[in-house]
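Morning run. Coffee first, then this:
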Amino acid sequence: MRISRPGRYARVMGFALLVIGLAVVVIAIGAGMVWQERADLPDTEIVYGVEDSIEFVSEGLDPATRDRIGRNGIRRMLEWEVRWLQLGDDERGGPAIAGSEEAAAYIQERCWEQGHAYEPEDIFAVLDLEAAYLLALGALGEAVAPDEVVADESGTDDHRGR
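And here it is:
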């Protein structure tokens, strides 16, 4: 009995089944990766709402301060602090510390340049309430001691125990 070579149809079908099998494996791996990434996402996303922060600060200020600086003053101070935090360390003269004296001085100078004079106590009252807002959102954690800050391989600061 003679063994014949498979016909053209059998070769095409074998190749098609191989391609389909590989496609199924690739799709399964891709679906697994997508599922894994979605499983790692936090349940809640922290979103800093400008209007929400202004409302939070406004409600927390004592009435005299609120009347003195107004809602636009609160907005102005918060926006300048965000701008200050976004500056590079060389422009800022050091690391960004929200609510610091340096931040307050920057805010006071920028507001003065725009023709709005605010007392340091008013600026610190706004910055303290902004910190309370960030804490309420869960955007702030516990302070890290200087001896806990180390440089990672990329040269950026990292925190031990992360």
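The radius of gyration is 29 Å. Good start to the day.
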